[in-house]
Amino acid sequence: MVALPDPEPLNELIESLTKLPGVGKRSARRMAYHLLQYDREGAKQIHDALDHALNDLVHCKMCNSFSQEEICAICQSPRRDHSLLCVVETPSDLNMIEASHGYHGLYYVLMGKLSPLDGVGAQTINFERLLKRVFEYPVKEVILATNFTAEGETTAHYLGTVLKEQNIKVSRIARGIPSGSELEYVDAGTIAWALNDRRSG
Amino acid sequence: MVALPDPEPLNELIESLTKLPGVGKRSARRMAYHLLQYDREGAKQIHDALDHALNDLVHCKMCNSFSQEEICAICQSPRRDHSLLCVVETPSDLNMIEASHGYHGLYYVLMGKLSPLDGVGAQTINFERLLKRVFEYPVKEVILATNFTAEGETTAHYLGTVLKEQNIKVSRIARGIPSGSELEYVDAGTIAWALNDRRSG
Ligand SMILES: [Zn+2]
Ligand SMILES: [Zn+2]
What we know:
Pfam families (chains A, B): RecR_C, RecR_HhH, RecR_ZnF, Toprim_4
Family (chains A, B): Belongs to the RecR family.
Oligomer: homodimer
GO biological process, one term (chains A, B): DNA repair
Number of helices of chain A: 9
CATH architecture of the largest domain in chain A: 3-Layer(aba) Sandwich
GO molecular function (chains A, B): DNA binding; zinc ion binding
Mean pLDDT of chain A: 86
Function (chains A, B): May play a role in DNA repair. It seems to be involved in an RecBC-independent recombinational process of DNA repair. It may act with RecF and RecO.
Number of domains of chain A: 2
CATH class of the largest domain in chain A: Alpha Beta
Bound molecules: zinc ion
């Protein structure tokens, strides 16, 4: 007697859910059962949201963050200080800095960080887009606000070297943020302080 | 300066992913960024799989498990012992019992368990469908293979009482399965032994 497999659409759903970061086969199975049995409405919502996000979101041509327009609202805003460019790893980090109310310049979102051990090199992060951004719309200063993790520090060091070679003023947010932690987990006051206390790179 | 929100399709995606069991706002955000930035192909797969699963899967009319046909392959099979009915909580439990190769009868999948503290009562679990199943296609014995957790035991006790009132022979799989654990986490040999050593209820 051979074990009969789950029906194909169920297997397909379980398999697809393992594409989510941190979700293994067992969690994916529970998620699939839950959606199909108790929350078909939620399943429909995820389906439609994926549709909209995949079709309607692009990367802002200036800051590289997700946007519905070619140039996002922050990059377009005349009320921001266009001479300052703050480089962060993710859109979450951008949100955290905005919430600190300590910064009024523009951003560049790397959408990742250098992680040589995982094979994430300068090609993957696409630093050239950042350099192009800085040449097209010159700024007075680039503030490196990558996380104070090993990868974030490597990224900041790499970017600092490359930008300074181009005679661009570079600073690093102050190490007021606890070493080894990530921006997302730090209170807004500390972030504001760290931005203010930035050192010339 | 007011913090600018994420673009709407991104918010929508993050919000929808919190519908997944065990996924909070922060995990949902990480999942959304990951899919949009690094795995759009995976996002497409989830989208399509949800489409297929929502449209193509129904509950088997006999065993209540997910199926592409009105009556699933197990319930249709002439090689199974149609006089035995094993009641389990989820399709995962059914798969685990199949993998033990210790059982050749049919199944009924409750798709849940009684959990009075969480407000999950006999209405939610729809025990009437199980009773109807047993009256329409009479069996010699119903084997209760719900988990040996508080909820599984409550469910087994409730079902045992109801079925015995209808003069149906009821048994409970042997408590060879470690108390407090769930079928999914037990090795196939123990499951086979527990099925074999079942006690008359
Ligand atoms: Zn932008
Ligand atoms: Zn069936």
